[in-house]
Specification:
By secondary structure, the protein is of the alpha/beta class. The chain has two domains: 4-99 and 291-324, Rossmann fold (3-Layer(aba) Sandwich); 101-282, NAD(P)-binding Rossmann-like Domain (Rossmann fold, 3-Layer(aba) Sandwich), CATH 3.40.50.720. It has 14 helices and twelve strands. The chain has a seven-stranded parallel sheet, sandwiched between helices. Strands 2-1-3-4-5 form a five-stranded parallel sheet. Helix 4 links the parallel strand 4 and strand 5. The longest helix is centred in the C-terminal third of the chain and has 19 residues, at 291-309. It starts with a strand and ends with a helix. Bound molecules: NADP nicotinamide-adenine-dinucleotide phosphate (NAP) and glyoxylic acid. The site of NADP nicotinamide-adenine-dinucleotide phosphate has 29 residues, from helix 7.
Length: 326
């Protein structure tokens, strides 16, 4: 008999076909988000889940699925899953690293250019019929070329952002808990500095850390006050890495020049104050949203799930302790 699995939301056909070959699938064809109670009910007889970052897979959901063997997230970040609780229950958790790196770096770069050169603002201006004449002083932004970029979290995506910075002749600073190898630093032209130094010296600060207990509100009032009044903050990591209330004050009071945000603390809610500000660019968590990348992510999650249910070790396990213990 095929193992029963829950797929919480509609996926590209290539991924669904992979799972259907090996599993009996429960999938809501209406592509509706399940409530926590519905999630608990749906996992009662399941051996695996494919879920999205919008599904909160907490200890209560894991407990409600006594047969669960694997939770496969269609994302590289997995802060929506209680990994410690899964590990205690011997449930493998998997993610989709690598396949979305370049696509997300492209979006970070698009946001950086958009906010510095006021591209969405210019678009709104033209569409509103406000452009009546060319003026030397119209809609002046800030240069990107030759400026200093500070990357917080020089992992896969942070490195891809750093590579793009070379084409813009930028000085690249970065901060990680551990320095990357000297060879990689040389290849990227990136210099490790403490976080306060990065904030003080950068014209653009781009965030690429995972959301963990340590990175929650990593950028709060004190950090924003260290940034230059001409600097921009770009966040394609997770909303809660930044203290949103402090960021709003920073933008309203001019501690920094602007922000471009793809992620928010309580998605899909976006604080109204942010929507009122012209020096802010907002996108709906679309870092990895290209057809090819979202398909690759879904297929990778399907491969992770099927491997685990076949008793094999999936390629992208985030809690290897489950195997080390066995
Ligand atoms: P990654 O390769 O694991 O890189 C994460 C980097 O963050 C590492 O270099 C790590 O270095 C650093 N880091 C972790 N904790 C830190 C801390 N407390 N202080 C400073 N640096 C820290 O991950 P990735 O693939 O680049 O993805 C990064 C994150 O981007 C994901 O977790 C996800 O939340 C987000 N993301 C968002 C989108 C989107 O649609 N907007 C798309 C993809 C990913 P050390 O361990 O040495 O500190
Ligand atoms: C998206 O936010 C991801 O973590 O893949």
């Amino acid at each position: 008999m095929k193992p029963k699995v829950l797929i919480t939301r509609l996926l590209p056909e290539a991924a669904l076909a992979l799972v259907r070959q090996a599993c009996e699938v429960q999938l809501d064809p209406d592509d509706r988000a399940l409530s926590p109670a519905e999630l608990r009910q749906a996992v009662a007889d399941k051996e695996g889940i494919i879920c999205l970052i919008t599904d909160r897979i907490d200890a209560s959901v894991l407990e409600a699925g006594p047969r669960l063997k694997v939770v496969a997230n269609v994302a590289v970040g997995y802060d929506n899953i209680d990994v410690a609780a899964a590990t205690r229950r011997g449930i493998v958790v998997t993610n989709t690293p690598g396949v979305l790196t370049e696509t997300t770096a492209d979006l970070a770069w698009g946001l950086l250019l958009s906010v510095a050169r006021r591209i969405p603002e210019g678009d709104r201006f033209v569409r509103a019929g406000q452009w009546t004449e060319w003026k030397l002083m119209l809609m002046l932004g800030h240069d990107v070329y030759g400026q200093t970029l500070g990357i917080v979290g020089l992992g896969r995506i942070g490195q891809a952002v750093a590579r793009r910075a070379r084409g813009f002749g930028m000085t690249v600073l970065y901060h990680n808990r551990r320095r990357v190898s000297p060879a990689l630093e040389a290849e990227l032209g990136a210099t490790w500095v403490e976080l306060p130094t990065l904030l003080q010296r950068s014209d653009f600060v781009s965030l690429h850390v995972p959301l963990t207990a340590e990175t929650t509100h990593l950028i709060g009032e004190a950090e924003l006050r260290l940034m230059r009044p001409t600097a921009y903050l770009i966040n394609t990591a997770r909303g809660a890495v930044v203290d949103e209330a402090a960021l709003i004050r920073a933008l309203q009071e001019g501690w920094i020049a602007g922000a471009a945000l793809d992620v928010f603390a309580h998605e899909p809610e976006v604080p109204e104050a942010l929507t009122q500000l012209d020096n802010v660019v907002l996108t709906p968590h679309i870092g990895s949203a290209s057809v090819a990348t979202r398909t690759r992510m879904a297929v990778m999650a399907a491969q992770n799930l099927v491997a685990a249910l076949r008793g094999e070790r999936p390629p992208h396990v985030v809690n290897p302790e489950v195997y080390d213990r066995a």
